[in-house]
Amino acid sequence: MNIGKNIIEMFDYKKKKIIYYKTDLQTHEGTFATGSEKNYTYKLFNNLYKGKCLINLKSFNQTLPVEETQKIERQYPTKKREKTYPERYDLSVFEKLNKMNGDTELQNDYKKWKDGINYKTNRKIKIDGKIHRELKQKFMIHYTILFEDLTSINSHEYLKETKKIINEIDDENAIIKNYNKLVDSIIEKIQKLKGWNEFIEFEGKYYGITNKVLNNIHRENDCFGEMVFMMKKEKECKGCRDGMAFNGSYSCSCYSYDINKCKNCGFIEEIKY
User: Cα(106)–Cα(112) distance, rounded to whole angstroms?
Assistant: First the structure.
Protein backbone atom coordinates (compact mmCIF):
# COMPACT_ATOMS: atom_id res chain seq x y z
CA MET A 1 0.00 0.00 0.00
CA ASN A 2 2.85 2.39 0.83
CA ILE A 3 4.54 1.63 -2.49
CA GLY A 4 1.30 2.34 -4.34
CA LYS A 5 0.85 5.64 -2.53
CA ASN A 6 4.44 6.61 -3.35
CA ILE A 7 3.82 5.87 -7.03
CA ILE A 8 0.81 8.20 -7.01
CA GLU A 9 2.72 10.99 -5.24
CA MET A 10 5.93 10.70 -7.28
CA PHE A 11 4.12 10.83 -10.62
CA ASP A 12 1.46 13.28 -9.42
CA TYR A 13 -1.01 10.91 -11.05
CA LYS A 14 -4.57 12.27 -11.25
CA LYS A 15 -6.02 10.64 -14.38
CA LYS A 16 -7.55 7.43 -13.03
CA LYS A 17 -9.58 6.52 -9.95
CA ILE A 18 -7.69 3.25 -9.48
CA ILE A 19 -4.05 2.42 -10.20
CA TYR A 20 -2.68 -1.09 -10.71
CA TYR A 21 0.88 -2.12 -9.91
CA LYS A 22 2.99 -5.20 -9.14
CA THR A 23 6.47 -6.04 -7.93
CA ASP A 24 9.31 -7.00 -10.29
CA LEU A 25 9.21 -10.52 -8.84
CA GLN A 26 5.55 -10.89 -9.70
CA THR A 27 6.26 -9.65 -13.22
CA HIS A 28 9.02 -12.24 -13.69
CA GLU A 29 6.78 -15.05 -12.41
CA GLY A 30 4.52 -14.52 -15.43
CA THR A 31 0.77 -14.42 -15.90
CA PHE A 32 -2.06 -16.94 -16.09
CA ALA A 33 -1.66 -16.83 -19.87
CA THR A 34 1.95 -18.04 -19.58
CA GLY A 35 1.05 -20.84 -17.20
CA SER A 36 1.71 -19.19 -13.84
CA GLU A 37 -0.83 -20.17 -11.17
CA LYS A 38 -0.17 -16.97 -9.20
CA ASN A 39 -0.35 -13.52 -10.69
CA TYR A 40 -1.02 -11.03 -7.93
CA THR A 41 -1.54 -7.43 -8.97
CA TYR A 42 -2.03 -4.70 -6.39
CA LYS A 43 -4.60 -1.96 -6.81
CA LEU A 44 -5.22 1.24 -4.94
CA PHE A 45 -7.77 4.05 -5.04
CA ASN A 46 -6.08 7.25 -6.16
CA ASN A 47 -6.44 9.96 -3.55
CA LEU A 48 -5.32 12.60 -6.10
CA TYR A 49 -8.18 11.84 -8.46
CA LYS A 50 -10.83 14.55 -8.19
CA GLY A 51 -13.80 12.78 -9.78
CA LYS A 52 -17.25 12.61 -8.23
CA CYS A 53 -18.22 10.23 -5.44
CA LEU A 54 -14.77 8.74 -4.93
CA ILE A 55 -14.90 6.08 -2.20
CA ASN A 56 -11.69 5.16 -0.40
CA LEU A 57 -10.69 1.51 -0.27
CA LYS A 58 -10.88 0.51 3.40
CA SER A 59 -10.87 -3.27 3.19
CA PHE A 60 -9.92 -6.23 1.00
CA ASN A 61 -13.44 -6.25 -0.42
CA GLN A 62 -13.40 -3.32 -2.83
CA THR A 63 -16.28 -0.98 -3.62
CA LEU A 64 -16.88 1.02 -6.76
CA PRO A 65 -17.76 4.72 -6.90
CA VAL A 66 -21.51 5.25 -7.10
CA GLU A 67 -21.53 6.16 -10.79
CA GLU A 68 -19.78 2.88 -11.65
CA THR A 69 -21.94 0.45 -9.66
CA GLN A 70 -23.92 -0.42 -12.79
CA LYS A 71 -20.77 -2.08 -14.14
CA ILE A 72 -20.79 -4.78 -11.45
CA GLU A 73 -21.67 -8.19 -12.86
CA ARG A 74 -24.48 -9.91 -10.97
CA GLN A 75 -23.45 -13.38 -12.05
CA TYR A 76 -20.45 -15.60 -11.46
CA PRO A 77 -17.59 -15.73 -13.97
CA THR A 78 -17.97 -18.58 -16.42
CA LYS A 79 -15.81 -21.69 -16.31
CA LYS A 80 -14.21 -23.03 -19.46
CA ARG A 81 -15.30 -26.36 -20.89
CA GLU A 82 -12.65 -29.03 -21.18
CA LYS A 83 -11.94 -30.37 -24.65
CA THR A 84 -12.92 -33.91 -25.59
CA TYR A 85 -10.93 -36.40 -27.63
CA PRO A 86 -11.93 -36.73 -31.29
CA GLU A 87 -13.21 -40.09 -32.44
CA ARG A 88 -10.22 -42.04 -33.73
CA TYR A 89 -9.52 -45.67 -34.62
CA ASP A 90 -7.52 -47.46 -31.94
CA LEU A 91 -5.06 -50.35 -32.09
CA SER A 92 -7.81 -52.98 -31.84
CA VAL A 93 -9.36 -51.70 -35.08
CA PHE A 94 -6.12 -52.16 -37.00
CA GLU A 95 -5.57 -55.58 -35.44
CA LYS A 96 -9.03 -56.57 -36.66
CA LEU A 97 -8.21 -55.12 -40.09
CA ASN A 98 -5.06 -57.24 -40.37
CA LYS A 99 -7.03 -60.34 -39.40
CA MET A 100 -9.72 -59.63 -42.01
CA ASN A 101 -7.13 -58.95 -44.71
CA GLY A 102 -5.57 -62.35 -43.96
CA ASP A 103 -8.89 -64.22 -44.09
CA THR A 104 -9.09 -65.76 -47.59
CA GLU A 105 -12.74 -66.83 -47.26
CA LEU A 106 -13.80 -63.35 -46.14
CA GLN A 107 -11.92 -61.77 -49.05
CA ASN A 108 -13.67 -64.07 -51.56
CA ASP A 109 -17.08 -63.38 -50.00
CA TYR A 110 -16.39 -59.66 -50.10
CA LYS A 111 -15.56 -59.76 -53.82
CA LYS A 112 -18.86 -61.57 -54.51
CA TRP A 113 -20.83 -59.14 -52.35
CA LYS A 114 -19.23 -56.16 -54.05
CA ASP A 115 -20.20 -57.55 -57.45
CA GLY A 116 -23.82 -58.01 -56.31
CA ILE A 117 -23.75 -61.73 -55.53
CA ASN A 118 -25.09 -63.33 -52.36
CA TYR A 119 -22.02 -65.14 -51.05
CA LYS A 120 -24.27 -67.56 -49.12
CA THR A 121 -26.38 -68.71 -52.10
CA ASN A 122 -24.29 -67.45 -55.06
CA ARG A 123 -27.42 -65.78 -56.41
CA LYS A 124 -27.52 -62.32 -57.96
CA ILE A 125 -28.83 -59.59 -55.64
CA LYS A 126 -29.54 -55.90 -56.07
CA ILE A 127 -26.61 -53.77 -55.00
CA ASP A 128 -27.62 -51.59 -52.04
CA GLY A 129 -30.88 -53.50 -51.77
CA LYS A 130 -32.17 -54.93 -48.49
CA ILE A 131 -30.31 -58.27 -48.69
CA HIS A 132 -27.15 -56.55 -49.94
CA ARG A 133 -27.21 -54.19 -46.92
CA GLU A 134 -27.78 -57.06 -44.49
CA LEU A 135 -24.84 -59.07 -45.86
CA LYS A 136 -22.62 -56.00 -45.62
CA GLN A 137 -22.33 -56.34 -41.84
CA LYS A 138 -19.83 -59.17 -42.24
CA PHE A 139 -17.31 -56.74 -43.73
CA MET A 140 -17.80 -53.86 -41.30
CA ILE A 141 -14.84 -53.08 -39.10
CA HIS A 142 -15.91 -49.95 -37.26
CA TYR A 143 -19.52 -48.79 -37.01
CA THR A 144 -20.35 -47.95 -40.65
CA ILE A 145 -16.80 -48.32 -42.02
CA LEU A 146 -15.90 -51.12 -44.39
CA PHE A 147 -12.56 -52.80 -43.75
CA GLU A 148 -11.50 -51.88 -47.29
CA ASP A 149 -11.83 -48.17 -46.44
CA LEU A 150 -9.00 -48.48 -43.89
CA THR A 151 -6.50 -50.44 -45.96
CA SER A 152 -4.91 -47.23 -47.31
CA ILE A 153 -4.15 -45.92 -43.80
CA ASN A 154 -0.65 -46.30 -42.40
CA SER A 155 -1.56 -47.67 -38.97
CA HIS A 156 1.80 -46.78 -37.38
CA GLU A 157 1.62 -43.13 -38.46
CA TYR A 158 -2.08 -42.93 -37.65
CA LEU A 159 -1.65 -44.19 -34.07
CA LYS A 160 1.36 -41.91 -33.62
CA GLU A 161 -0.77 -38.95 -34.71
CA THR A 162 -3.54 -40.05 -32.33
CA LYS A 163 -1.11 -40.05 -29.40
CA LYS A 164 0.07 -36.54 -30.33
CA ILE A 165 -3.53 -35.26 -30.51
CA ILE A 166 -4.37 -36.75 -27.11
CA ASN A 167 -1.25 -35.25 -25.51
CA GLU A 168 -2.07 -31.81 -26.92
CA ILE A 169 -5.65 -32.01 -25.61
CA ASP A 170 -4.38 -33.18 -22.20
CA ASP A 171 -2.04 -30.16 -22.04
CA GLU A 172 -4.87 -27.77 -22.97
CA ASN A 173 -7.21 -29.38 -20.45
CA ALA A 174 -4.58 -29.04 -17.71
CA ILE A 175 -4.56 -25.28 -18.35
CA ILE A 176 -8.37 -25.21 -18.39
CA LYS A 177 -8.52 -27.12 -15.08
CA ASN A 178 -6.17 -24.61 -13.44
CA TYR A 179 -8.28 -21.76 -14.83
CA ASN A 180 -11.48 -23.32 -13.48
CA LYS A 181 -9.84 -23.75 -10.06
CA LEU A 182 -9.08 -20.04 -10.16
CA VAL A 183 -12.72 -19.30 -11.07
CA ASP A 184 -13.82 -21.44 -8.10
CA SER A 185 -11.65 -19.35 -5.78
CA ILE A 186 -13.10 -16.14 -7.26
CA ILE A 187 -16.66 -17.43 -6.79
CA GLU A 188 -15.84 -18.28 -3.17
CA LYS A 189 -14.64 -14.69 -2.61
CA ILE A 190 -17.76 -13.29 -4.28
CA GLN A 191 -19.96 -15.38 -1.99
CA LYS A 192 -18.25 -13.81 1.04
CA LEU A 193 -19.03 -10.23 -0.03
CA LYS A 194 -21.27 -8.31 2.37
CA GLY A 195 -22.08 -4.99 0.68
CA TRP A 196 -24.09 -4.62 -2.55
CA ASN A 197 -21.42 -2.38 -4.13
CA GLU A 198 -18.46 -4.51 -3.04
CA PHE A 199 -16.78 -6.42 -5.80
CA ILE A 200 -14.03 -8.83 -6.75
CA GLU A 201 -12.16 -7.95 -9.94
CA PHE A 202 -11.37 -10.77 -12.33
CA GLU A 203 -10.15 -10.50 -15.91
CA GLY A 204 -11.07 -6.83 -16.12
CA LYS A 205 -14.63 -7.25 -14.85
CA TYR A 206 -16.18 -6.47 -11.46
CA TYR A 207 -18.19 -9.29 -9.88
CA GLY A 208 -20.52 -8.60 -6.97
CA ILE A 209 -23.35 -10.19 -5.00
CA THR A 210 -25.50 -12.24 -7.37
CA ASN A 211 -28.77 -12.56 -5.46
CA LYS A 212 -31.02 -9.62 -4.61
CA VAL A 213 -32.55 -11.72 -1.84
CA LEU A 214 -30.65 -14.17 0.35
CA ASN A 215 -32.01 -16.00 3.39
CA ASN A 216 -35.18 -13.91 3.17
CA ILE A 217 -33.19 -10.62 3.43
CA HIS A 218 -33.25 -8.02 0.64
CA ARG A 219 -29.55 -7.33 -0.08
CA GLU A 220 -29.85 -5.03 -3.10
CA ASN A 221 -28.33 -1.58 -2.43
CA ASP A 222 -27.62 -2.74 1.14
CA CYS A 223 -31.30 -2.50 2.05
CA PHE A 224 -31.17 -5.54 4.42
CA GLY A 225 -34.94 -5.42 4.80
CA GLU A 226 -36.87 -8.54 5.72
CA MET A 227 -38.96 -10.08 2.95
CA VAL A 228 -42.53 -10.81 4.08
CA PHE A 229 -45.11 -13.01 2.35
CA MET A 230 -47.94 -11.10 0.70
CA MET A 231 -49.94 -13.54 -1.40
CA LYS A 232 -49.87 -16.67 -3.53
CA LYS A 233 -50.94 -16.67 -7.17
CA GLU A 234 -51.47 -19.29 -9.83
CA LYS A 235 -50.93 -18.88 -13.56
CA GLU A 236 -52.93 -21.09 -15.91
CA CYS A 237 -51.35 -21.88 -19.25
CA LYS A 238 -53.20 -21.38 -22.54
CA GLY A 239 -53.39 -25.12 -23.15
CA CYS A 240 -55.29 -25.78 -19.95
CA ARG A 241 -57.57 -22.79 -20.55
CA ASP A 242 -58.42 -24.13 -23.99
CA GLY A 243 -58.75 -27.72 -22.78
CA MET A 244 -55.84 -28.91 -24.93
CA ALA A 245 -54.07 -30.66 -22.05
CA PHE A 246 -56.77 -33.30 -21.82
CA ASN A 247 -56.35 -34.70 -25.33
CA GLY A 248 -52.66 -35.51 -24.79
CA SER A 249 -51.44 -33.13 -27.48
CA TYR A 250 -50.24 -30.39 -25.16
CA SER A 251 -47.74 -30.25 -22.31
CA CYS A 252 -49.10 -28.31 -19.34
CA SER A 253 -47.07 -25.27 -18.26
CA CYS A 254 -49.20 -24.01 -15.39
CA TYR A 255 -47.33 -22.77 -12.31
CA SER A 256 -47.83 -21.14 -8.93
CA TYR A 257 -45.77 -18.38 -7.34
CA ASP A 258 -45.50 -16.52 -4.04
CA ILE A 259 -45.25 -12.74 -3.91
CA ASN A 260 -43.00 -11.38 -1.15
CA LYS A 261 -42.36 -7.74 -0.27
CA CYS A 262 -39.44 -6.02 1.48
CA LYS A 263 -40.42 -4.28 4.74
CA ASN A 264 -37.89 -1.48 4.17
CA CYS A 265 -38.14 -0.44 0.53
CA GLY A 266 -41.17 -2.28 -0.88
CA PHE A 267 -39.15 -4.43 -3.32
CA ILE A 268 -41.37 -7.17 -4.78
CA GLU A 269 -40.09 -10.69 -5.32
CA GLU A 270 -41.89 -13.47 -7.18
CA ILE A 271 -40.89 -17.05 -6.33
CA LYS A 272 -42.06 -19.49 -8.98
CA TYR A 273 -42.93 -23.12 -8.18
Answer: 10
